[in-house]
Amino acid sequence: MATNSPVTRSPAAVVLAVGGLYVAQSVIGGITWAGLPAVMRDRGMALDEVGLLSLIALPWALKFLWAPMVERFRLPPAGRNRSAVIVAIGGGISVLGLGVVGLIGPGLLGPVLACLTIIALAAATVDIACDGYAVEALPRKQHGWANAAQVGGAYLGSAIGGGLFLIIVAAYGWSVSVWSMAALLVLLGVPFLLRSRAYAAAETRTHVPSLASALRRPEIRRGLLAAALYVIAQKTAMIMIGPFLIDAGLDLAAMGLINGAGSMFVGLAAALVGGALVRVLGARAVLVIALVLQAGALLFFAASGLFPDIPNWALATVAVASSSGIMALGFVALYAQFMHWSDPRQGGVDFTLFQSMDALVSMGGGVGAGYVAQHLGYGIFFAGAGVIALATIPAIAVVAGRSVARETGRIETTRPAALAQIGENP
């Protein structure tokens, strides 16, 4: 890549700008996969209907199909990059979509699903541009700061979308809560639009990203298999934890506090611990540890049906540990592997493939989770999910190799996908 007019960028300003977008994307994910399931169950909707929310992950599952086109538009053969254009269009669609969702209300499932799917399509496209911009705008030695923004942004956004959103719903109603989130998206996107537009330089570029070159590499195929196995084991049961706690007697305000505190504090702390453990033990060992812990949490939920005297605070504590702590611990290790498997020349395309596999498996697993929990009960559902987590351990141990540190001598963390949806450029 040749630069015709060099532009000096402040790393701190770039991190702040992209961090706002990562928070915004995770606000949308928090509403969709944590806030809305609790609201729907609180209003008496069936679990198999709640499970249909997983279909909203379809754009995240399929975005690898248009990732090369987005990158080619964003980085034309000659001229300024168009990151701000993509973010402005995608952000505008997301804000408008949330405005419509606020008018519809959660009772009309079909229209709400349609609007949220369009929002997810816009957010997934913005994610491609944001990831590419972060890698392009920051020197390699500063990429760790971008990853810190991704981790912090994911958990802060999830705390807002899955926590604060429910608190506002409980206090002021559905429409006010959704429109408040839409206004927040506008505020979060402004720093990026101002920064990227002002500092876009005219450049000439020679490399053309493509899916074909990615899929020819054995490392990518290995990573896709690892992603599918791990997501089945770790994430399939997550969408049912909110409805499970609602049925156990917790109200929406309590769920908001649980989701908010878990995402903001437990998840972020676990991500940092996971990064340290990857350095010491290697990614494969941390993946196995996370699966064992997750299996224990799921089997605890299954056993709660046999022991009805278990207090709600104990259920809530394990739920926070499972959905925030253990998830973050494991996915930090998984994406350390993805960093190693990705080609630096087209990291955005490679990571989009991994993201899409994650989202596709999450979507199918969520729909199946709702069906099983509705017709067989929570006990059998969580017991089966725990057994799957244990059974996946040998396969993950074989597929996942040793983690490889970067040239800087450390593994850097990236934001985890529960909350929205996951996977970043190396």
From TrEMBL:
Topological category with respect to the lipid bilayer: Multi-pass membrane protein
Source taxon at top rank: Bacteria
Family (UniProt): Belongs to the major facilitator superfamily.
Bilayer-crossing regions: 12-33, 45-62, 83-104, 110-130, 151-172, 178-194, 224-246, 252-278, 285-307, 313-336, 348-372, 378-400
Keywords: Membrane, Transmembrane, Transmembrane helix, Transport
The name this protein goes by in its record: MFS transporter
Signal peptide: none
Pfam families per the UniProt record, alphabetical: MFS_1
